[in-house]
Design a protein that fits this description.
279 residues; alpha+beta; Diaminopimelate Epimerase, Chain A, domain 1; 17-stranded mixed beta sheet; 5 helices; 17 strands; globular
Length: 279
Protein backbone atom coordinates (compact mmCIF):
# COMPACT_ATOMS: atom_id res chain seq x y z
CA UNK A 1 0.00 0.00 0.00
CA UNK A 2 1.10 3.57 -0.71
CA UNK A 3 1.81 6.01 2.10
CA UNK A 4 2.98 9.62 2.23
CA UNK A 5 4.98 11.21 5.02
CA UNK A 6 4.88 14.99 5.53
CA UNK A 7 6.09 17.44 8.15
CA UNK A 8 5.32 20.97 9.27
CA UNK A 9 8.15 22.50 11.33
CA UNK A 10 9.28 19.00 12.25
CA UNK A 11 5.84 17.85 13.42
CA UNK A 12 5.54 14.77 11.19
CA UNK A 13 2.54 12.85 9.88
CA UNK A 14 1.68 9.80 7.83
CA UNK A 15 -1.08 10.45 5.30
CA UNK A 16 -3.00 7.47 4.02
CA UNK A 17 -5.88 7.48 1.54
CA UNK A 18 -8.96 5.69 2.85
CA UNK A 19 -8.67 2.98 0.17
CA UNK A 20 -5.16 2.22 1.41
CA UNK A 21 -6.22 2.23 5.07
CA UNK A 22 -9.00 -0.31 4.36
CA UNK A 23 -6.34 -2.87 3.39
CA UNK A 24 -5.33 -3.09 7.06
CA UNK A 25 -8.65 -4.56 8.20
CA UNK A 26 -8.15 -3.14 11.70
CA UNK A 27 -9.38 -0.08 13.63
CA UNK A 28 -7.81 3.25 12.70
CA UNK A 29 -6.44 3.70 16.22
CA UNK A 30 -4.48 0.44 15.88
CA UNK A 31 -3.25 1.47 12.42
CA UNK A 32 -2.03 4.77 13.90
CA UNK A 33 -0.10 3.04 16.68
CA UNK A 34 1.40 0.54 14.23
CA UNK A 35 2.50 3.03 11.59
CA UNK A 36 3.59 5.84 13.93
CA UNK A 37 5.90 3.62 15.99
CA UNK A 38 9.42 4.95 15.38
CA UNK A 39 11.08 1.57 15.95
CA UNK A 40 8.75 -1.00 14.36
CA UNK A 41 6.77 1.26 12.00
CA UNK A 42 7.35 4.31 9.85
CA UNK A 43 7.50 6.81 12.69
CA UNK A 44 5.36 9.93 13.04
CA UNK A 45 3.50 12.13 15.51
CA UNK A 46 0.16 11.33 13.93
CA UNK A 47 -1.86 9.59 11.21
CA UNK A 48 -4.15 11.48 8.82
CA UNK A 49 -6.77 9.90 6.56
CA UNK A 50 -8.81 12.13 4.19
CA UNK A 51 -12.57 11.70 4.47
CA UNK A 52 -14.53 12.67 1.35
CA UNK A 53 -17.87 11.51 2.76
CA UNK A 54 -18.84 14.64 4.72
CA UNK A 55 -21.62 17.22 4.82
CA UNK A 56 -21.30 20.99 5.23
CA UNK A 57 -17.63 21.08 4.22
CA UNK A 58 -15.49 20.40 1.15
CA UNK A 59 -13.67 17.54 2.86
CA UNK A 60 -13.03 16.03 6.29
CA UNK A 61 -10.29 14.07 7.96
CA UNK A 62 -9.63 11.34 10.47
CA UNK A 63 -6.77 12.38 12.74
CA UNK A 64 -5.03 10.10 15.24
CA UNK A 65 -2.13 10.76 17.58
CA UNK A 66 0.76 8.32 17.70
CA UNK A 67 -0.75 6.63 20.78
CA UNK A 68 -3.96 5.87 18.87
CA UNK A 69 -6.05 8.59 20.50
CA UNK A 70 -8.06 11.07 18.46
CA UNK A 71 -7.39 14.80 18.48
CA UNK A 72 -9.91 17.54 17.78
CA UNK A 73 -7.39 19.58 15.79
CA UNK A 74 -3.74 19.77 14.78
CA UNK A 75 -2.37 22.98 13.30
CA UNK A 76 0.72 21.54 11.62
CA UNK A 77 -1.28 18.52 10.51
CA UNK A 78 -3.95 20.63 8.81
CA UNK A 79 -1.31 22.46 6.77
CA UNK A 80 0.17 19.17 5.56
CA UNK A 81 -3.29 17.79 4.92
CA UNK A 82 -4.27 20.85 2.87
CA UNK A 83 -1.22 20.61 0.61
CA UNK A 84 -1.72 16.85 0.18
CA UNK A 85 -5.40 17.25 -0.75
CA UNK A 86 -4.58 19.93 -3.32
CA UNK A 87 -1.53 18.22 -4.82
CA UNK A 88 -3.34 14.88 -5.09
CA UNK A 89 -6.20 16.72 -6.84
CA UNK A 90 -8.69 15.43 -4.29
CA UNK A 91 -9.92 19.04 -4.42
CA UNK A 92 -9.14 21.44 -7.24
CA UNK A 93 -9.07 24.72 -5.31
CA UNK A 94 -6.44 26.33 -3.11
CA UNK A 95 -8.84 27.44 -0.38
CA UNK A 96 -11.39 25.02 1.05
CA UNK A 97 -13.21 23.95 4.19
CA UNK A 98 -12.25 20.94 6.32
CA UNK A 99 -14.59 19.28 8.79
CA UNK A 100 -12.72 18.44 12.00
CA UNK A 101 -13.76 17.51 15.51
CA UNK A 102 -13.01 21.14 16.40
CA UNK A 103 -15.42 22.42 13.74
CA UNK A 104 -14.90 23.78 10.24
CA UNK A 105 -11.32 24.87 9.51
CA UNK A 106 -10.34 26.78 6.35
CA UNK A 107 -6.80 26.38 4.94
CA UNK A 108 -5.44 28.29 1.96
CA UNK A 109 -2.43 27.26 -0.17
CA UNK A 110 -0.23 30.33 -0.68
CA UNK A 111 1.75 31.09 -3.85
CA UNK A 112 5.07 30.49 -2.03
CA UNK A 113 3.98 27.01 -0.91
CA UNK A 114 3.17 27.93 2.69
CA UNK A 115 -0.31 27.28 4.02
CA UNK A 116 -2.40 29.91 5.81
CA UNK A 117 -5.13 28.47 8.01
CA UNK A 118 -8.14 30.11 9.61
CA UNK A 119 -7.94 28.27 12.92
CA UNK A 120 -11.30 29.65 14.10
CA UNK A 121 -11.87 31.45 17.39
CA UNK A 122 -10.14 30.72 20.70
CA UNK A 123 -12.29 29.18 23.42
CA UNK A 124 -11.86 30.90 26.78
CA UNK A 125 -14.83 29.55 28.76
CA UNK A 126 -13.62 27.00 31.31
CA UNK A 127 -16.46 24.55 30.79
CA UNK A 128 -15.85 24.46 27.02
CA UNK A 129 -12.06 24.00 27.18
CA UNK A 130 -12.73 21.88 29.38
CA UNK A 131 -11.03 23.19 32.52
CA UNK A 132 -12.57 22.56 35.92
CA UNK A 133 -11.67 25.81 37.77
CA UNK A 134 -13.91 28.73 36.85
CA UNK A 135 -10.96 31.12 36.43
CA UNK A 136 -8.86 29.89 33.52
CA UNK A 137 -6.44 32.84 33.32
CA UNK A 138 -3.41 33.22 35.62
CA UNK A 139 -4.23 29.93 37.32
CA UNK A 140 -1.64 28.71 39.79
CA UNK A 141 -0.98 24.96 39.59
CA UNK A 142 1.24 23.09 42.03
CA UNK A 143 3.40 20.43 40.35
CA UNK A 144 5.98 18.59 42.48
CA UNK A 145 6.05 21.49 44.95
CA UNK A 146 6.62 24.04 42.16
CA UNK A 147 3.92 26.61 41.33
CA UNK A 148 3.29 27.27 37.64
CA UNK A 149 1.08 30.18 36.68
CA UNK A 150 -0.66 29.18 33.48
CA UNK A 151 -3.59 30.02 31.28
CA UNK A 152 -6.10 27.49 29.99
CA UNK A 153 -7.42 28.06 26.48
CA UNK A 154 -8.73 25.87 23.69
CA UNK A 155 -8.10 26.04 19.97
CA UNK A 156 -10.50 23.15 19.48
CA UNK A 157 -8.18 21.20 21.78
CA UNK A 158 -7.11 22.17 25.32
CA UNK A 159 -3.86 24.00 26.14
CA UNK A 160 -2.16 25.21 29.30
CA UNK A 161 0.05 28.16 28.37
CA UNK A 162 2.91 29.04 30.72
CA UNK A 163 5.22 32.03 30.23
CA UNK A 164 8.61 31.54 31.92
CA UNK A 165 11.68 33.68 32.57
CA UNK A 166 14.41 34.03 29.88
CA UNK A 167 16.97 31.90 31.74
CA UNK A 168 14.74 28.80 31.84
CA UNK A 169 15.39 25.78 29.59
CA UNK A 170 12.13 25.28 27.73
CA UNK A 171 12.79 21.73 26.58
CA UNK A 172 13.77 20.56 30.04
CA UNK A 173 10.61 22.09 31.51
CA UNK A 174 8.43 20.46 28.85
CA UNK A 175 9.99 17.03 29.34
CA UNK A 176 9.90 17.16 33.14
CA UNK A 177 6.59 18.82 33.88
CA UNK A 178 4.61 18.42 30.64
CA UNK A 179 3.38 14.86 31.33
CA UNK A 180 2.37 15.78 34.87
CA UNK A 181 0.36 18.81 33.79
CA UNK A 182 -1.14 16.92 30.82
CA UNK A 183 -2.88 14.50 33.19
CA UNK A 184 -3.69 16.97 35.98
CA UNK A 185 -7.17 16.84 37.50
CA UNK A 186 -8.00 20.34 36.25
CA UNK A 187 -8.17 19.00 32.68
CA UNK A 188 -10.74 16.16 32.45
CA UNK A 189 -9.76 15.49 28.81
CA UNK A 190 -6.02 16.02 29.44
CA UNK A 191 -4.17 18.95 27.88
CA UNK A 192 -1.32 20.15 25.72
CA UNK A 193 1.27 22.12 27.68
CA UNK A 194 3.27 25.08 26.34
CA UNK A 195 6.33 26.66 27.98
CA UNK A 196 7.10 30.06 26.43
CA UNK A 197 9.78 32.73 26.45
CA UNK A 198 8.85 36.27 25.44
CA UNK A 199 11.58 37.44 23.02
CA UNK A 200 9.91 40.70 21.99
CA UNK A 201 6.42 42.07 21.50
CA UNK A 202 6.20 40.28 18.15
CA UNK A 203 8.24 37.11 18.73
CA UNK A 204 8.08 34.22 21.19
CA UNK A 205 9.84 30.89 21.59
CA UNK A 206 8.03 27.82 22.85
CA UNK A 207 8.35 24.11 23.54
CA UNK A 208 5.33 21.88 23.87
CA UNK A 209 4.37 18.65 25.53
CA UNK A 210 1.63 17.45 23.22
CA UNK A 211 -1.32 15.49 24.50
CA UNK A 212 -1.16 11.96 23.12
CA UNK A 213 2.32 12.44 21.60
CA UNK A 214 4.72 13.82 24.17
CA UNK A 215 7.53 16.10 23.02
CA UNK A 216 7.05 17.28 19.44
CA UNK A 217 9.11 19.72 17.38
CA UNK A 218 6.08 21.94 16.75
CA UNK A 219 2.43 22.41 17.65
CA UNK A 220 0.31 24.74 15.52
CA UNK A 221 -2.63 24.97 17.88
CA UNK A 222 -0.17 25.50 20.73
CA UNK A 223 1.40 28.42 18.86
CA UNK A 224 -2.06 29.91 18.35
CA UNK A 225 -3.07 29.44 21.99
CA UNK A 226 0.22 30.96 23.21
CA UNK A 227 -0.16 34.08 21.08
CA UNK A 228 -3.79 34.52 22.14
CA UNK A 229 -2.77 34.39 25.79
CA UNK A 230 0.14 36.78 25.20
CA UNK A 231 -2.16 39.31 23.55
CA UNK A 232 -4.75 38.99 26.32
CA UNK A 233 -1.99 39.56 28.88
CA UNK A 234 -0.92 42.70 27.02
CA UNK A 235 2.63 41.60 26.19
CA UNK A 236 2.26 40.73 22.48
CA UNK A 237 1.19 42.57 19.34
CA UNK A 238 -1.45 41.18 16.99
CA UNK A 239 1.03 39.58 14.57
CA UNK A 240 3.66 37.29 16.11
CA UNK A 241 6.47 35.07 14.89
CA UNK A 242 6.57 31.84 16.90
CA UNK A 243 9.91 30.03 17.15
CA UNK A 244 9.43 26.30 17.64
CA UNK A 245 12.14 23.63 17.92
CA UNK A 246 11.37 22.58 14.33
CA UNK A 247 10.87 25.97 12.67
CA UNK A 248 8.81 29.16 12.56
CA UNK A 249 5.13 29.90 12.12
CA UNK A 250 3.34 33.25 12.00
CA UNK A 251 0.20 33.83 14.07
CA UNK A 252 -2.20 36.71 13.47
CA UNK A 253 -5.05 37.57 15.84
CA UNK A 254 -6.80 40.93 16.05
CA UNK A 255 -8.74 39.99 19.18
CA UNK A 256 -8.34 41.50 22.65
CA UNK A 257 -9.90 41.37 26.12
CA UNK A 258 -12.87 43.44 25.00
CA UNK A 259 -13.47 41.44 21.82
CA UNK A 260 -11.84 38.00 22.00
CA UNK A 261 -14.34 36.48 19.58
CA UNK A 262 -12.06 36.84 16.55
CA UNK A 263 -10.54 34.21 14.25
CA UNK A 264 -6.90 33.19 14.66
CA UNK A 265 -4.78 32.77 11.51
CA UNK A 266 -1.67 30.61 11.27
CA UNK A 267 0.80 30.63 8.36
CA UNK A 268 3.62 28.14 8.02
CA UNK A 269 5.33 25.49 5.91
CA UNK A 270 4.13 22.03 4.92
CA UNK A 271 6.65 19.76 3.24
CA UNK A 272 6.89 16.24 1.87
CA UNK A 273 9.36 13.89 3.51
CA UNK A 274 8.83 10.85 1.29
CA UNK A 275 6.31 8.61 -0.42
CA UNK A 276 6.70 4.86 -0.21
CA UNK A 277 5.15 1.46 -0.71
CA UNK A 278 4.51 -0.26 2.60
CA UNK A 279 4.99 -4.02 2.49
Amino acid sequence: MKITKMQGCGNDFIILDYAQYSKFNMPMSDVAKKLCDRHFGIGADGLIIPNTDVNNADIGWFFYNSDGSTAQMCGNGIRCFAKYVYDKKILDKKEFTVKTLAGIITPQIMDNGDVRVNMSKPILESDKIPFIPADNMNYKMAVNNIIFEGNAVSMGNPHFVIFVSPEENLMELAKKYGPLIETSAEFPEKTNVEFIKLLSTDKIELCVWERGCGITLACGTGACASVVVGILKGCLKNSVQVKLPGGMVKIDWDGNKVNPNRDVFMTGPAEYVFTADLA
